[in-house]
Amino acid sequence: MRVLHVLTSIDPSTGGPANVLSRLARVQAQRGHVVRVITADDPATIGAVTEQMRLAGVEHRGCGPMHGPLGRGPATRREMEAALRAGVDIAHVHGVWQHTPHAGAAAARAAGVPYIMRPCGMLDPWSLRQGRLKKRIFLALVARRHLNRAAALHYTTETERRLAEPLGLRSPTFVIPNGLDWDEFEPLPPRGAFRAAHGIGERTLIVFLSRVHHKKGLGLLLPALARLPDAGVMLAVVGPGEARYITELRAQAAALGVGDRVIFPGMIVGRARLEALRDADLFCLPSYQENFGVSVIEALGVGTPVLISDQVNICAEVAAAEVGEVVPCEVEPLARRLATMLADRPRLAEMAARARPWVERTFRWDAIAARIDAMYEQVVHARRADAT
Q: Which tens digits make up the pLDDT trace of 17-38?
């Protein structure tokens, strides 16, 4: 099948949607699809990602540099129209609140190509409350029309679909989760490299791995760390973030008396990020909103139990599988649960033993890609049936 993916940015530092799409596109190419990806990135800034996709057989076009509040790429519409003329069976559009996804939806519709929109959690009530007036206007003038005209909406959890229901969107829906490249997790890196690199030794280690942003709940995690009865517990805040916000977090940690127990290694990729997750006694992501949380299943994929907030949309699945625990976005419950989990090592070991088999059964990209193929086939078949 000929697949066109449209996303504002494929830069891995922008977070989950970019990382998920780069992996999905490579897996689809390996499965024999003709895959093109169009983003509004400046080609000069993402050469490594573009080369990685090229080696996997994926064609990528960066149409930036972006400009304006909606991240408009000056050549995105032209590149989309050229790709559609070359032949596309289906367009998979990722995101809601920027220019590129809607340019892709409009171009696909004009070309008579069915398109699927993946909202990436952007229709969650928490997201809708951020810049509420602007989003309400954009939804009324632009986004609702393209969402309702989509051949389908692709959600990654049942929770995400449920949270979007109050909007009353009319398009059919599919729920298909994100996945992991299991080959990356087999074999696992040996334990100890991350601890050695950062002088952690045998101390208890909590790892947070995600984009360093206020919505990720670090403002809850730092005071929770300060309340732990074990004053030797370390926290590694792993991921990219704005320098100003990281400076604020360092200051908060110092004011709480835990400045010497919190490290900020920055963005870590590849096997190095697995080393960080593998060396953790516990992974923690207390986000105020998280559409899926790929880092959660990555932690579980290396056998590290997780503690996540009830606003991480995969929380019900994690709790049901008994591979982690779930707390509200409040400091005291988070601190209590951290202390309880870290004190009960036999229970952590039980969770760890269940984690890898559950992830392998549920989130391997090869199985997830097959489900996405089935979604594409259903959508394309329905469009052809309507045409006759």
A: 998 999 999 999 999 999 999 9
